[in-house]
Amino acid sequence: MAGSSCKVAFILVAFAITIPCLEAGIATFDEFLQERAEEAHEIALKSYVPDPTNATSHQDIHDDEDFKKTSKKESNITRRELKQNEKKKYTGPCLALNPIDRCWRCKKGWAKNRFKLANCVKGFGRRAIGGANGKIYTVTDPSDDDPVNPKPGTLRYAVIQKDPLWIIFSRSMVIKLNYELLISSDKTIDGRGYSVVIKDGAGLTMQFVNNVIIHGLKIHKIKSTPGGMIRDSWDHVGIRTRADGDAISIFGSSNIWIDHISLADCEDGLVDVIQGSTAITISNCHMTKHNDVMLFGASDTFSGDKIMQVTVAFNHFGQGLIQRMPRCRWGFFHVLNNDYTHWLMYAIGGSSGPTILSQGNRFIAPNNDAAKIVTHRDYAPSSEWEKWQWRSENDVFMNGAKFIQSGKPLGKLPFNKGFLMKPRHGSQANRLTRFAGFLNCKVGSPC
């Protein structure tokens, strides 16, 4: 009887995983993908932190004195001044103004020790080391002609390799992906040193994988692209359906870090995190010219996203954005020290009872009186959403912005001990995000 019960439970788990996958770009969910989905789910469960407000497994160190030396209190500014400030390019000496950047930037020899970056991630994605245990692979060819047997030297060839790899680039290049780029586990894509632009084609997909770092790219104008036979790893080729046009899609994956990416103007989302993905940090990104910015959890019926834990830190949500910064379901989301300078509908939204902790952000509302509210809740009456824990602490609200809180306070949070980063006051969000997005790094000089 016990054996039969276990078998039934296994079938139910497999069924729960299989059904969503049929809508994940997978046309044929074969035995290889089934095994990989189950392995990825096990890793996600191990990566999940049952009580992130009481985790003590990793110390988060902040150099307070260094920050104080370079920090200025920000006074209220007009929208005209804000627009002028956004156009200015900094030309002075290297400044590293937040704890992630201070870990590696402004060091002249960063290119000789690229793996150092893997020690710098904080938040829920802090276990991501990408390809730090592997070799460096240099992309020399921007073409993307064969999705089944990609040419050596291309980005597609690099990301499907079996072993851990730290992927860099030989020169500046524009890459048009003819099919979605399926990235295998234990990879870092490191664009530092050159201008690496992915545009006018498909985006990046992490599906049923673990331990990936994406850093230092520009990703613009991603489009819906045809499906077909696409290699998703060294050992497997599968039939894919049409890709939606997401810049970055994270599906059933864990221990992922997205850092210093400039994202804009894609056909679907800029960053999607769905289907039981967890242990993710999105930091230092600059997002512009887009409607549905970030989606965390794609379904109000998929309770498997209860394990989702995402840190959103030091990002600049800039010109031309409309909504979903992020839009959350089910999980736990720590949104800290981001600069929200533009939205047309709302900034942070959600449904299905997510926990959202907003700390030290700056929210500058649009001039439209109907869009001053930072928060937006869907598919629940007030009697239900009033129980959801959406809390705001030390945020700064400008031009009439207002955060509607709900639920009980999370209590005293053990910063410097766990997976929750220690936030600065929202008055410093502009400074902390000053260098968000792609960095114009040059080998041999501070970045």
Automatic annotation (TrEMBL):
It catalyses: Eliminative cleavage of (1->4)-alpha-D-galacturonan to give oligosaccharides with 4-deoxy-alpha-D-galact-4-enuronosyl groups at their non-reducing ends. Belongs to the polysaccharide lyase 1 family. Binds 1 Ca(2+) ion. Required for its activity. This is Pectate lyase. Residues 49-75 are annotated as: Disordered. InterPro entries: AmbAllergen, Pec_lyase, Pec_lyase_N, Pectin_lyas_fold, Pectin_lyase_fold/virulence, PEL. Gene3D superfamilies: Single-stranded right-handed beta-helix, Pectin lyase-like. SMART domains: Amb_all (SM00656). Keywords: Calcium, Cell wall, Glycoprotein, Lyase, Metal-binding, Secreted, Signal. The lineage of its organism: Eukaryota, Viridiplantae, Streptophyta, Embryophyta, Tracheophyta. Residues 172-369 form the Pectate lyase domain. Residues 59-75 have a biased composition (Basic and acidic residues). GO terms for molecular function: metal ion binding; pectate lyase activity. It is an enzyme of class 4 (lyase). Its cofactor is Ca(2+). Its EC number is 4.2.2.2. GO terms for biological process: pectin catabolic process.
